[in-house]
Recover the amino acids of this structure.
């Protein structure tokens, strides 16, 4: 009885190998055609990535076909293992073939040069195909200030933006008379301030009846820029865009509260 079981077990061994072969074996034609198709697809997406065309669907396609390539290459190695083994080992000397040594040394040199950054110019050469991006506008910082809230007058909102040349200047706003004398000082920058002075969003009250003249001053380290504008109305909802005349100011708006 024991001998019969032993022989039955021996008979099952070839059957087991046959089942495994059927599971892992795939027709060479299917494997070869699949690898060729995957190669052309990965070559196309790889070149697009090389010239920095990094759209999401390109990156996703390159990744998916890369995984498929690993799968089909595994079938290819399995189907051709005897040939690959013959290429890699010299039967007479029973040692690694020269081809294997050359390939190993080549890959070792390429990996070393890549990690050391020597090949980075080649890897980044594709950037010459990328159109230069237009410089984005720098962020514009405004600070909100409220003044003269205890004064009996008309609420006025102002937006004052400096130009690039006057970005380090401090701002001041005043109502002046016909002689240029200050009637109301609506805003004066703090004497102690860290960093570059921001642009200004000012809410204030004006006690002077219209018409009157506003004077805006941007005081820098080397020079001061002055802008004056006549305000002819303080009617509720009145809006006025003040011509900056490119003298230290980029935008100045005034609006009367409703």
């Amino acid at each position: 009885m024991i001998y019969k079981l032993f022989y039955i077990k021996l008979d099952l061994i070839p059957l087991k190998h046959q089942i495994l072969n059927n599971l892992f074996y795939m027709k060479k034609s299917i494997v070869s055609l699949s690898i060729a198709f995957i190669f052309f697809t990965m070559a196309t997406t790889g070149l697009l990535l090389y010239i920095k065309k990094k759209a999401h669907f390109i990156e996703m396609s390159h990744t998916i076909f890369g995984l498929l390539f690993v799968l089909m290459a595994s079938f290819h190695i399995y189907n051709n293992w005897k040939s690959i083994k013959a290429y890699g080992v010299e039967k007479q000397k029973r040692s690694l073939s020269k081809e294997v040594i050359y390939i190993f040394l080549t890959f070792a040199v390429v990996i070393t040069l890549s990690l050391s950054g020597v090949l980075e110019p080649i890897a980044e050469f594709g950037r010459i195909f990328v159109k230069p991006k237009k410089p984005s506008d720098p962020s514009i910082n405004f600070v909100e200030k409220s003044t003269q809230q205890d004064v009996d007058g008309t609420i006025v909102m102002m937006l004052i933006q400096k130009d690039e040349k006057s970005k380090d200047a401090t701002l001041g706003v005043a109502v002046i008379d016909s002689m240029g004398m200050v009637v109301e000082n609506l805003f004066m920058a703090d004497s102690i301030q860290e960093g570059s002075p921001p642009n200004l969003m000012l809410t204030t009250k004006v006690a002077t009846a219209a018409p009157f003249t506003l004077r805006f001053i941007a005081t820098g380290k080397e020079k001061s820029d002055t802008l004056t504008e006549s305000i002819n109305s303080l009617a509720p909802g009145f809006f006025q865009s003040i011509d900056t005349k490119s003298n230290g100011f980029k935008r100045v708006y005034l609006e009367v509260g409703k």
User: Anything to note?
Assistant: Helices lie at 2-24, 28-50, 56-79, 81-88, 98-115, 120-123. The chain has two domains: 14-129, 142-256. The chain has six helices and eleven strands. The radius of gyration is 39 Å.
